[in-house]
Every structure is written in C-alpha cells, then in structure tokens.
Amino acid sequence: MKLDSRRPDFAVQPKRHNLEGLQRLRASTWVKILQLPNPFSFDEALLLCPVSADEWLVWIPDHGEATLNIKQFSY
C-alpha cells in the first residue's frame, strides 16, 4: 500500500512543544535571579534576548552581561 499525500483527507499532526512557561518570557523583562553570579551583584536581571530554548542573555546591575539558564531565575 502506498501513501498518497495528495488526497484531501491526508492529515499530518503538528508537533507541539511545551512552551507554556516560556511564553511569559520576553526581552526587556526583569526577572529574579536564584543564583547570584557574585555577592555584590543585584538579585534581578534584565532579559536581553534568548540564546537557546533554555538560555537567555541578561544584564545584571553591578555585574554586566551574562548567560543564564531558565532554571537560574524566576519570573
């Protein structure tokens, strides 16, 4: 039996990823840091842009830019 993809009743199920929590993450959002990069830095970071599915480039006052895993901050 050969699959005919030209048939109008041919259906392909799209893959759905669990992005429920990630949808709230947006650039220019302040988040609470759970693990401080140094004892003198602030405990909040400004999200700049996503680096990967689970990492963000952030700016931390009194520290500078850093890459944080989403497990290292709360929003």
Strand composition percent:
35-45%
Read across the widest sheet, the strand sequence of neighbours is 4-3-2-1-5
Could you give the order of the helices and strands?
EEEEE
CATH architectural label of one domain: Roll
How far apart, in Å, are the first and last alpha carbons? 52 Å
Q: Major sheet: size, sense and barrel closure?
A: 5 strands, antiparallel
- Total of helices: 0
In percent, how helical is the residue content?
Answer: under 10%
Radius of gyration over all CA atoms, rounded? 20 Å
Beta strand count: 5
Outline the low-pLDDT stretches: 15-20
Q: pLDDT average, as an integer?
A: 81
Overall geometry comes to elongated
What is the CATH class designation of one domain?
Answer: Mainly Beta
CATH topology of one domain: SH3 type barrels
Task: Please sum up the structure shown.
The protein has strands at residues 30-33, 44-52, 55-60, 64-69, 73-74.
Q: Helices and strands in order, then pairings?
A:
Layout lengths: L29 E4 L10 E9 L2 E6 L3 E6 L3 E2 L1
Antiparallel strand pairs: 1-2, 1-5, 2-3, 3-4
Explained architecture:
With 75 residues, this protein is mainly beta. The protein has a domain at 25-74: SH3 type barrels (Roll). It is built from no helices and five strands. It has strands at residues 30-33, 44-52, 55-60, 64-69, 73-74. A hairpin with a 3-residue loop joins strand 3 and strand 4 (64-69). Residues 15-20 have low confidence and may be disordered.
